[in-house]
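Bug #77: duplicate submission created two jobs. Keeping one. Sequence:
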Amino acid sequence: MTTQRREFGLVHTQKSSDLAAGIDGRLLRPGEGGFAEATLIWNGMIKKTPALVVQARSVKDVVKTVEFARDNDLELSIKGGGHNIAGLALSDGGVTLEFSLMRTVDVNVPAGTVTVQPGCTLGDVDRATQEYGLATTLGFVSETGVAGLTLGGGFGYLTRQFGWTVDDLVEVELVTAAGDIVRASRTENEDLFWALRGGGGNFGVATEFVFKTHEIGPEVTAGLIAWSAREAEKVTAMFRRVTGSAPREMTVAMLMRNAPPAPWLVEEHHGKPMIGLVVCHTGSPEDAERDLAEIRGLGEPWADLIQVKEYAAQQSMLDATQPKGMHYYWKSEFVSDVSGELLADYRAQLEGLEAPANQIVLFHIGGALAEFAEDDGAVGNRDAAFACVIQAMWPEGGPEEANKEWVRSVWQTLKKYSTGGNYINFQTADETDDRTSESYRGNLARLAEVKARYDPENIFRVNRNISPA
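Kept job's structure:
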């Protein structure tokens, strides 16, 4: 039991009752109905129990919760989708502000924008925008929360066309540590807007996001194609060629792992080393057929699931590969090129791997993001062309230390190819402050200045914290 939890005594209990009476939403304590569901997060490896959960229904609830946590010196965390790998959605023994009751999406077709509340998942937004053949740049697992994805920068299938998620961000409504409700954009509170575009939850509670939309879908050419790992040298060489000349409408991610027991694979291939490509082409079917010809013409795939399909279906295709409650441990680096040396080291990491679900992904993101200045938003990393993500997954009671050590070993092998940056949203709970500094690189000092201005007491510290204190 933490010191904070012991300190949550009779005085705080009485004050929390006053808080419950003054909000539109719900206040939940451990053991009460709805508490377990409200504190369920994606990474089952994280074990935290808040003393209180406030399920906000309005911005007023957010203000009151921030004031309550601040005035009573309680740790405060923010839970949107609960998908952060480090478990930053929960405060152990403190207060968790939970947003499942604030999930409205408002598409403004004439303005070309979509307004999103902080409890929304990517799937909520995709379903709403796709009704009009529109999309904004989001991630690639539909159960991810929009708020956390965005505040950390965000990337997905549309990044090559439009940049980081925060490059589509137009405006944010925020509750500050002082309890003020402010708007931030390129023309209002510009320094705060700059920091929110990648700086995480360091500056307040985001209660509304406004994004630009683009004409995408509703149908795209997309899916997965997979081969035996015996074809890995040919596939990686082809991946290098294809990504070197691909139009921005086409995104390709390469992964190596042991084949899952999936229905689209014949049983004899289950558990065998596999290499696959996940592709998404948002151009015309004719353009997609031409641009994907080399991929689909290589060897004899174990499976070819590439087809014309709904964009929203592609956005949720990988959901089943990352089920809620499993244990996850990742490392990431951005790289500027997939050299022959990198690809040789990449292939070698699968040799002898017995873990059934561990994988290494190279996600092509180069394109539009490089057309913005390095300091256009705290996210930075404009020299990134690929995201290299080393992922381990195992069930409760599984070989935790062996999986973590595999991730760290692969990471040490591949880190020499890094730009020096990594993705803040993929940092695990045991990452050091140095890793956070590497994420922001030249933008870190300015971030600390904005933090000192908007949250000098570091009220918002359950995050990849950039407070100089």
